[in-house]
Amino acid sequence: MDRKSTVIKSHQLAAWHEGLTRLGEQNDYPQAMMWKDYFLLILFTGLRRMEAASLRWNDVDFKAKTFTVQDTKNREIHTLPMTDFLYELLWRRKQFKISEFVFPAPSQSGHIMEPRKAMLKVAELSGIPFTVHDLRRTFATTTESLDLPAYALKRLLNHKMTNDVTAGYIMRDVERLRKPMQRIRDFLVSQMSCDVEVP
Predict the structure, then answer these.
(1) Would you list the DSSP string of 148-188?
(2) Where is each Tyr recombinase domain found (predicted)?
(3) What is this structure's pTM?
(4) Is 50 exceeded by the pLDDT of residue 169?
């Protein structure tokens, strides 16, 4: 199987989420809940691995219900709206705040770096092998399957826009993404099972 084109299929999401939940319940697994939240954040936002890992609290705005990734692959600041799911996930993470990073770790960077061990544990518990980039591809595939506008897909995945935009335009742009983000959230939650709890 070509790992560059794999996704977690809709019918696999419930088992994958069950494995993720079981990971979060393992008190003997280092930073289990943090890894659970990290994987969920990527699935529900389409962020790249390091974009999620290096997210800072200064870039999370609970009042505006947005968060911003400063250091992106295309070097363009990426601001996204929070759904209720993401709001609760990040709010819960903030209750355990110990550093400037949402996902802190005793590493040189100050944040989590290598998710491989946690991924393998979730795969063991769920029977669903995956990579972090599979989560981003699953987000993209979900967006396409919902027939959301190509514009929304491009913006949500932070593909480079051809035109220059002002800060004011970007904020209006973010508001236009709330409904698409909510539709993606609703679909993913429905596939993970009808009784999935908001983090």
Answers:
(1) --HHHHHHHTTPPPSS---HHHHHHHHHHTHHHHHHHHHHH
(2) 3-182
(3) 0.89
(4) no
